[in-house]
Amino acid sequence: MSSSEQYKRQIMNDLAQGNVESLDNVPASPAQDYQNFDDFAQRSSKEERRQIFGRSLHPDKIPVSQMEPELKKAIDQIKPNERDDVAKDFLKRLKERGLSDRDLEKQLSLSTHHASRMTSDDVSRLAGFTYHNHPDIFQDVLADKPALMKFLSNPVVGAVLGAIAVKWLGNHRN
After folding, report:
1. What confidence tens digit (pLDDT) does each residue in 64-91 have?
2. At 17, phi and psi to the nearest 5?
């Protein structure tokens, strides 16, 4: 059995047994009955997404070796204008940390330092670098652009959707 299958099975077993992480410090919002991920992405607050993604999307939980191919597949599937927005957000936030777009272009072997001209390969490398070296920035960008999440495949989405399901189920135990 592959490690991703084991990971997915463990998440499902944990959820089935009620073995859940506490999400008590995630602020409650009045509309918690999300119908699907798109509904969650549209109606949840940025802070709610940030906290859930922060717990689920971190190199300590999902190794870079597993996340990078998932990012590549997801970025290949998003619309070019959404890809530009994701690249702009990464570059802007990395610049705030003192990393110039030109330095990143050289360091990551990007085809350009202009977000609007980046290929999906460039954006994937940038996302992978950010996930590995600046997970907080990665989580912030995904909280701003949650549509990218729906293109990540199983175990990665399983971890995030599991956290969302735990939050939803927790509010219905009363």
Report:
1. 788 888 888 889 988 899 899 999 999 9
2. -90, 0
User: How far is residue 104 CA from its own chain's centroid?
Assistant: 21
Give Cα separations from 150 to 24, 59, 117 (angstroms): 25, 19, 24
Of 75, 73, 56, 86, nearest in space to 155 by CA: 56
| pLDDT class of 1 with cuts at 50, 70, 90 | low
Say if residues 128 and 71 touch (Cβ distance below 8 Å): yes
pLDDT, tens digit, for every residue of 130-149?
A: 999 999 998 888 888 876 77
Query: From CA 161, how far away is CA 115, in angstroms rounded?
Result: 29
The pair of three-digit structure tokens given for residue 35, joined into one six-digit string: 């119908």
Q: What's the chain's Rg over C-alpha atoms?
A: 17
Q: What are the boundaries of each domain within the chain?
A: 36-170
Task: State the Cα–Cα distance between residues 148 and 124, nearest whole angstrom.
Answer: 12
Q: How far apart are CA 10 and CA 111, in angstroms?
A: 40
